Amino acid sequence: VAVEARKSDLEGADLASRLATEKIDVSLTVRPEQSGSLHPISQTIEEVVAIFGPMGFEVAEGPDIEFDANNFTKLNFPPDHPAREMHDTFFLPVQEDGSRHLLRTHTSPVQVRVMESTKPPIRILAPGRTYRCDYDLTHTPMFHQVEGLAIDTETHMGHLKGCLIEFVKAYFEVEELPVRFRPSFFPFTEPSAEMDIGCSWSDGELKIGAGGDWMEILGCGMVHPNVLKACGLDPDVYQGFAFGMGVERLAMLKYGIPDLRRFFDADLRWLKHYGFSALDLPSLSGGLSR
Ligand code: PHE
User: Fold this and answer.
1) Confidence band (pLDDT; 50, 70, 90) for 114?
2) For ligand 1, is residue 246 a contact (CB within 6 Å)?
3) pLDDT tens column, 238-275
4) Residue 288 Cα, ligand 1 centroid: separation in angstroms?
5) Is pTM, for the whole model, over 0.90?
6) Ligand 1: centre distance to CA 73 (Å)
7) Whole-angstrom Cα distance, residue 185 to residue 230?
8) What's the pLDDT at 4?
9) Atom number, ligand 1, closest to the C-alpha of residue 192
10) Cα 250 to Cα 43: distance, rounded to the nearest angstrom
């Protein structure tokens, strides 16, 4: 040990004298590593969390491999309902007791886990990976969603709209952003809606903000009484809202990333071009992105 210590002492002294005599650029010598960058998916999740955090939403997580019950049954998908197939589900082999696991097709099973384990009031945000057996220009078999859930005794559709309108304005950094809620259907919400934001196209380029066009941005609704019941909450006492959105889509729209599939190529040139500084965490006061 003593010999090694002396050897490194000598190397240290040697380096110091070389620095003095050879005028070596210290910045290159001390920090030769290239800095890494944050993937746009991570950046976008951080931004969404930074916006909903001050509204009282905490991050919750669930596993990628789920019970069929949490992904479908408790979310009010009837058995053999075509929606189970519509989700292009990756099922795992049937087990001895007849049950089967699957790769979660959405982040909504985290709603179930949180409602089963937490006494309301509940306000959570669940970002994570999701899976559907689909691959083309606009679909990859693994993608990311962020789920939101708020449960209380008096939470209503107005709260849902208020939170989501504030969210899109902050996320896209457009103060006068037109929005609209279109009636839609999800088995686990009633009523259900899809939210669109205003946009315009000129010369093939998309601009978010006032314009003649609309762009779908997320799905949402009031949590269905059957879901509350299935998760052990009394629907005569509790009510609330939920929403879910695709992270890749949010990132593509804000940062002008054209091709979904490049997200998962691990191409260093792409990461360098679209990556974000790892030391510059998004916050509402400090700015979401630079
Ligand atoms: N889970 C839905 C989807 O993947 C999105 C959603 C979440 C809709 C919560 C309503 C409420 O399409």
Assistant:
1) very high
2) no
3) 999 999 999 999 999 999 998 999 999 999 999 999 99
4) 25
5) no
6) 15
7) 19
8) 47
9) 10
10) 11
Q: Closest residue (by CA) to atom 4 of ligand 1?
A: 106
What token pair was written down for 132?
A: 């559907």
**Whose C-alpha lies nearest to ligand 1, atom 10?**
220
- Model confidence pLDDT, tens digit, residues 90-103: 999 998 998 889 99
pLDDT 10s digits, 56-98: 999 999 999 999 999 999 999 998 887 777 679 999 999 899 8
For residue 158, report the distance from its CA to the centre of ligand 1, in Å.
Answer: 18
Which residue intervals of 123-174 are DSSP H helices? 157-172
- The rounded Å distance from CA 6 to ligand 1 centre is 64
Between helix 40-52 and helix 247-255 the angle, nearest 10°, is 100
d(CA 242, CA 223): 6
Q: Whose CA is nearest to atom 5 of ligand 1?
A: 244
CA 78, chain centre distance (Å) = 27
State the closest ligand 1 atom to the C-alpha of 105, by its place in the atom list counted from 1. Answer: 4
Q: Distance between CA 130 and CA 73 in Å, rounded?
A: 17
